[in-house]
Amino acid sequence: MLLARDHPDDDARRRLRDGEWRRLRPGAYVVADTLPTDPFELGTQLALAHAVAVSRQHRPGVLSHTTAALMWGLPLPGDPGPTHVIRPTTVSGSHADDVVRHLVRLAPDEVTTVAGMPVTTLARTAVDCAATLPAGHGLVVVDAARRSGVTAEALQRALAGRPGTRGIRRARAVVEHADDGAESPGESSTRAALIGLGLPRPETQVLVRTAAGDMWADLGWRGWRLLVEYDGRSKYEDGGVDALLKEKRRQDLVESAGWRVLRVTAADLRDRRLLVRRLRAVLPADVAATLRPVGPFAR
């Protein structure tokens, strides 16, 4: 990330005109040929560079919410959006459309540094995201924070520091259902969808004993002998046909051990009616009849 104030005016204008630099925001640029071509990676890198620019141009301030999540390396479903900054008071002349400012007084133990930038702690970041994102998206972030080492107790302390604030009820529900056993954003999103349809909270990383040894499934309910596996594209991209055959062999062994398996994809998560139809085919009849949207994860 480059700041115009560190370069002669003519040099900055020339490099921008010639396409050597890409503009992030007024007075801040990034070298164009260092940017990735993959759209998702590009969006993430630009959002990170934008956050660094805001932090360097507008001190004091603490990077927060989804911006802090990016700084911590947490997954974010969808567009990262604008840069979020927490300040204890307003700063004269600091308004900018590409920055969301939160007037909050943080406790000293809620602030740390990442890559030299002031950032909310991992627990505070997770709770802020849980309070402001849709519940399913928030669960992706909080699950990832749990995998990164944040304890349930730390999340509860962060919640206790936000009594009565907007989104706190949703944040409590997300934190209550967070699980460090979710190994990918797809698994977190699948669990959120299942809970949002009124199903009991599924167990993560379910141990299945098969004739070929112990295996683990993404989600499931032991009492129903039902497993749910999230199938993302990345599972098969590198392995090709071999990966497909291996997964087929694995499912055959699991089913031979007396389990049923429902494979869920991103298409199922985008179409809840399709997911409901598929679930009704494998759930006990009395449970299938009760499926309906309920609670914050239903939206």
Automatic annotation (TrEMBL):
SUPFAM superfamilies: Restriction endonuclease-like (SSF52980)
Organism whose genome encodes this protein: Cellulomonas carbonis T26
Domain of life: Bacteria
Protein's recorded name: DUF559 domain-containing protein
